[in-house]
Backbone:
């Protein structure tokens, strides 16, 4: 577990862009189980690739004309219960943080694992997500 004082600004970074932080498994189930429409889930992290690539890329992408209806986030190493439950919805992919998942009508339709994020610019991540938004949203 990371100290909340350390992670609060990192979580707030996405909250300021309209992402709802999920803290419990019940909240995750409510958002993802049989949900109609589109939902973007960001598995946030304290790592450098989350700060330099994932969060900025996601924030650029959600400015796109087509975007998911619901924006949610869980924080790996902080919201352990919520993160664990969210990862169940992301199977068969192994646990990854950071990670970005797009769901349509409760089904996982697009997924970026850490190895898709690490070493790639925020712009590349944003373009990848915008292509997925154009297709599914």
Residues:
């Amino acid at each position: 577990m990371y100290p909340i004082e350390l992670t609060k600004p990192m979580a707030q970074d996405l909250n300021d862009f309209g992402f709802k932080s999920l803290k419990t498994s019940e909240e995750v189930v409510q958002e993802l189980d049989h949900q109609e429409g589109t939902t973007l889930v960001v598995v946030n992290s304290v790592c450098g690739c989350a700060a330099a690539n994932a969060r900025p890329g996601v924030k650029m992408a959600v400015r796109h004309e087509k975007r998911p209806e619901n924006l949610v986030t869980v924080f790996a190493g902080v919201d352990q219960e919520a993160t664990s439950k969210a990862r169940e919805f992301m199977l068969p992919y192994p646990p990854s943080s950071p990670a970005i998942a797009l769901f349509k009508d409760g089904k996982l339709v697009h997924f970026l694992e850490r190895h898709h994020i690490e070493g790639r610019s925020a712009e590349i991540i944003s373009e990848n997500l915008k292509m997925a938004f154009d297709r599914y949203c």
